[in-house]
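Course assignment 3, question 2. Fill in each field.
Student: A.L.
Task: Predict the tertiary structure for the chain below.
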Amino acid sequence: MRPYAEGQMITTVTTEYKYLQTGKEPKKILLPEGTSYESLTNVRDYHDLFCALNGLFNVSRSAALNNFDYLVQVSEHSCLALQSKVSNYFGLSINNLLLDPYPLSDALIEILTSDKPVVHLNQSFVDMFHREAAVQCRLGNDKGALCVGAYCALRGCMRSDGVVGQTKHGECPPV
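Answer field:
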C-alpha cells in the first residue's frame, strides 16, 4: 500500500516511494510524436505526468469530485481507450503494476530531478504510464481506479496548451 504523500514530498531511499520526489524546478516535457500533446509545461512530478498522459486532467474537475456516476463514466471511457493502446491488456495483473515500471521509473526520477529545464520523454515512458493506468483498469473490472481519477481532479488541472497546474500551488480554479 502506498501512503498518501501530497504535501509531504520527501526524498526516500526505497525504490517503491522515490517516484514521489519532485524536481528542483518545474520542467517542460517534450513528448513523442503522436502523443496527445507536443509538450507539457510546468511538470513537477510523476503524478503530473501520469494524470496528464492518461487524460485525467481533461475531465470536469468538479464533476469528478462531486458526481460518482460521472467519475465511473469517465473511467470506463479511459479504460476502453487503453484496451487498444496497451498490449496484452486483458492479461495484465497486479504484478505488472508492482514489477514492470521500476527500471523506467528510476530513469524518470533522474529526468525530473535533473537541472535541465526542458527534457524529452521517449515512447517507452508514455507506454509505462498507459500500462500503469491499464493495470488499474483491470483491477477495477475495467471501470478503472476511480480513486485515481478523483485524485488527479483534486491535485491538478491542465490548460489546453499543455500547461500543468497544481491545486496546492494555487494554479487551478477552485472546485
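Instructor remarks: The longest helix spans residues 68-85. The first strand starts at residue 27 and ends at 30.
Grade: pending
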